[in-house]
Design a protein that fits this description.
Elements lengths: L2 H12 L9 E2 L2 E2 L10 E7 L2 E6 L4 E5 L2 E6 L2 E6 L2 E7 L10 E9 L2 E7 L5 E2 L1
Length: 124
């Protein structure tokens, strides 16, 4: 059983009461701090990739996740090789041309972030 499956099972059990809130990836906020609220609605693991689905159709993909802090006031995956957050431009139709993303890849030199539809493109 992969770590992604273990984490997915834990999140699935917690979904009815899971933490809602704003998102940060390696310290980088999605939007302004505490400006957006996201609610997990489903989760699945495919191999060692965890996919968490949110109430407005957003998807968080975590490749090789390690460690989970899941409590009433916290949802945190401690480490990963790669993290990708996908959403459709808010207020617009959910079409392929409105799909946006933030993508973070961890390497020996640090975490490199790229994006489409927002400001991110740097090493963290």
């Amino acid at each position: 059983m992969t770590e992604a499956v273990i984490i997915a099972n834990a999140i699935q059990i917690a979904l009815p009461r899971a933490k809602t809130g704003t998102l940060r990836f390696w310290g980088e906020w999605f939007g302004r701090p505490y400006d957006n609220w996201h609610k997990m609605v489903d989760v699945e693991a495919l191999g060692n990739t965890l996919h968490v689905f949110f109430h407005e159709g957003e998807r968080l993909s975590v490749h090789a996740p390690a460690g989970l802090d899941l409590a009433a006031n916290q949802f945190r995956i401690q480490d990963a090789e790669r993290v990708r957050w996908e959403w459709h431009s808010y207020g617009h139709p959910k079409t392929p041309e409105n799909l946006r993303f933030m993508d973070f890849v961890k390497s020996a030199k640090g975490v490199f972030g790229t994006s489409y539809g927002c400001w991110l493109s740097k090493v963290l």
